[in-house]
Amino acid sequence: MKIQDFISNSDQLMKGETKWLAPSNIALVKYWGKENNQLPKNPSISFTLSNCVSETKLIFEPKKRNKELVNYSFFFEGKYRKDFNKKIELFFSRVYKYVPWIKNYNFIINSKNSFPHSSGIASSASSMASLSLCIMDIERIMFPKMSLNYFNNKASFLGRLGSGSASRSIKGPICIWGATKSFDKSNDYYAVEFGQNLHEIFKTYRDTILIIDNNKKKVSSSKGHELMLSHPFSKQRFIQAKKNTKLLISILKNGDLENFISIVESEALTLHALMMTSKPNYILMNPGTLNVIYKIIDYRETTKTPICFSLDAGPNVHLLYPNSFSTEILNFINEELLTYCKEGKFIFDKVGMGAKKN
């Protein structure tokens, strides 16, 4: 599918509303570093989550006066939020070429999350994915012969222009974004599902997210990606990520949990090592994060339970494990990890099948 295939226009005017739920995702091989127009410097692979979601309702009506600018008002969790305008305006400026009909409408955007915003649980991914799905839902009314495959691919394509990780929040349970010779149809423009070759054990994997700190992180992911342009280890990192992508694709087919754990934890630590060695450097982990990591490693070595950790761009820890170990790991959390969770908070999640209309 070519980029030109995603350009669509229509003079059909209407009004209404649409609402979509889109999940967050946790990258197993991390995307960190991008080129112009939100293209990744390396492929990434992620678990699509189920309970950590953004819900976006988009109310639309024709403009009384036709202006080129996209006209909108944004509300987050019921409150008008002008501070989000820069990010949303950038999104609309990027997608305009592919959905030029949006200039004919006034939009009211209502968004909310089931999890803390900007604390390192990929809220930009889920929020931009849900907004893109709302836009595509309107376009589907204009073009009723649109196929489901086209709908999903273009939603992923548009979501990527708002937040790269959003491309992986449309479908599930595992998505690949970024061109790699190791996976057919993979590309830099939208994410693709892993498909039927996924080993059974990964289809019901659990992700319990320990909320170590729910405050807004001090350095945004966008800034982190920007710093990779001049990072002293960027070349080595992109080689590592491509190698890990190839290895993980094989593991996801054969169910090798030992090597799954090795790659996932290495990727998480590499992500934060890149932050700590950028110029300027910064640290998003905190002492609670490190204590939890030590506890997880010790628990795994002692009990031989196939549990591992992952981290997004923040201090909170994702516990990844097969569903069959849920009872033991809940006991482990309550006995050993709860003390490190802010106000005792953690989120039970699991792999999911992607976004849905609400």
- The total count of strands amounts to 14
Main sheet specs: 8 strands, mixed
Q: CATH top level of the largest domain? A: Alpha Beta
> Overall pLDDT, averaged?
94
Report the CATH architecture of the largest domain.
2-Layer Sandwich
Q: Would you tell me which CATH topology of the largest domain applies? A: Ribosomal Protein S5, domain 2
* Large-scale geometry: globular
Quickly count the domains.
2
Order of helices and strands: EEEEEEHEHHEEEHHHHEEHEE
What's the gyration radius in Å? Answer: 20 Å
Structural class category? alpha+beta
pLDDT < 50 runs, ≥5 residues: none
Separation of termini? 29 Å
Helical residue percent band: 25-40%
Total of helices: 8
Strand content: 15-25%
Could you explain the architecture of this structure?
Strands 1, 4, 5, 6, 7, 8, 9 and 14 form an eight-stranded mixed β-sheet that branches. The longest helix has 21 residues. The model has no long low-confidence stretch (mean pLDDT 94). Helix 2 packs across helix 3 and helix 5 packs antiparallel against helix 6. It is built from eight helices and 14 strands. It has 358 residues and is an alpha+beta fold. It is globular and about 65 Å long. It has two domains: 195 residues, Ribosomal Protein S5, domain 2; 151 residues, GHMP kinase, C-terminal domain (Alpha-Beta Plaits, 2-Layer Sandwich).
